Amino acid sequence: MKVNTTTPVVSIGIDAAVVAAHQIAIRGEVREDFRTPPTLAGLAKLTKRLEPYAPALVVAEPTAGTWLPLAHAVTAAGCEIGFVANRDSARLRKAITGASKTDVIDADMLAHCAEVLGVGAAAVPPPGQIALRRAIRRRHVCTVDAHRVECRLWALGVWAFPDLWRACGGHTLAQPLLRRWPDLGALSRARLGSITEIVAAHSRDTNPELRAARIRDAAAGWASFWAGRLDLDGLGWELAEMLTDINTADQRHRNATDQAVGLWQQHWPDDVLTSIPGLGPICASTIRGWWGDVTQFRSAKAAVAHAGLNPSMWSSGLSEAPSRRITKQGPAELRLALYQAANVARRRDPQLAAHYRRLMTERGHNHISANTAVARKLACRAWAIATTGQPYQPRDLDGDPLSLTDAADLAAELAVPDNIRSRTRGTTRRGRLNPN
Fold first, then answer.
1. Cα–Cα distance for residue pair 287/341, rounded to 1 Å
2. Cα(182)–Cα(165) distance, rounded to whole angstroms?
3. pLDDT in tens, 24-59
4. Which single residue of 24, 172, 314, 396 has CA 20 to 30 Å from 223?
5. Does any domain span residue 194?
């Protein structure tokens, strides 16, 4: 194979645009600036202009979805493409140019990111992985939307009828109850047996009739309190609209979940990731959507950093904070999936349960920080299992193999005591370096 020794050594940056034109900066032995529109003709022009510089690295920001057609245009020219997070490039631009920002400045700055930030070449995901990633992202958006509507319902309930909301004990019972009787007056006149049926179906109350009586009395009390002071018909309409929004968001969430799981099963049948306790179809499909076969990561540490679960560091002068909050610089969908899976895994895996217990009892962590640490270990295990292709084997604290049942029993014995779990949230403390 002939090696082209006349290829100029350059670094290339592209400031991607959604509506306007892409700004390209070529720096090094050749200095050139040009623009191309995000159209088929523009991408073809970009490929032709970059061919003389193959196999140079092109650095761009993953702005919206523009990274995908740009990646194919760049690789068609024989070049490699790397991506830098928008947050990192913005900080670098501010350090270099201050408050000034233009497309030309951004492209020039991106051309130097490979040297300054150590950006490496990224692989272009296959079509199946991209489709799975977009379905997971859609599911994440639906999850956030549903949570926001539920928060609005909770905010309305705690000021309009707090006694009723407390009697329900939360959304699980309040939603089906208010869905049937959104009007407080109608709920106060409902048959006790009808309310009891809903309480029994949506709660674990040992005496559902007593709770049903509390609910009806609370509804009657607030209906009487708001008489002549608040339009109860308007309140009932608002409640009905919120509950309709919740139903719509839940249906969209189910559709996105079915799509994501279907794509995952199609492209990764019998996925070995599900052998890890706590990793079900949702978390496994999310991992595959962003990591694929994980070959783009050289180590588990790199995979954890991609998910944004690695702790940041801070030291300056005589102060040091060796363990700060996580960077959160990866995809939020992947980070949330690993966090939720960790909350299950720590109840089934003895080693993770022991790690969680040690952080809670000895290090003074709260649940969120301790579970985040478990999620970080879970991400390392997912990378190792996906790399080797071998099913996960649960082990005890001495490293001896265990069955899934025995592992879950041992993890239950390592549960954190309730008195420690219920303590107030702790704070991160910064230590002082010894000047001596």
1. 11
2. 13
3. 999 999 999 999 999 999 999 999 999 999 999 999
4. 172
5. yes
Tally of structural domains, the chain: 3
CA distance 205 to 203: 5
**Which has the closest alpha carbon to 369: 425, 286, 303?**
425
Q: What is the pTM of this model?
A: 0.85
Starting at the earlier edge strand, list the strands of the sheet with 431-432. Answer: 314-316, 319-321, 431-432
Handedness of CA 398, 402, 407, 409 (dihedral sign): negative
Per-block average pLDDT, block size 10, for the chain (436 residues)?
Answer: 66 91 94 94 96 94 90 96 86 83 91 85 92 95 93 96 95 96 96 96 94 97 96 96 95 96 96 95 96 92 92 71 78 95 96 95 90 96 96 95 95 91 54 39
Indicate whether 65 belongs to any domain.
Answer: yes
- CA dist 411 and 216 (Å) reads 42
Q: Which of 124, 153, 168 is the last residue of a domain?
A: 124
User: Does 113 lie in the same domain as 244?
Assistant: no
Token pair of 220, please? 């009657």
The answer to whether position 357 is within a domain reads yes
Position 431: which residue type? G
How many Å apart are CA 337 and CA 15, to the nearest integer? Answer: 31
Query: Per-residue DSSP letters for 54-121?
Result: TT-EEEE---TTTHHHHHHHHHHTT-EEEE--HHHHHHHHHHHHTT---HHHHHHHHHTHHHHT----
Give the pLDDT confidence of 375-411 residue by residue, as tens digits.
999 999 999 999 999 999 999 999 999 999 999 999 9
CA 217 from chain center: how many Å? Answer: 42
Q: Say whether both 49 and 103 belong to one domain.
A: yes
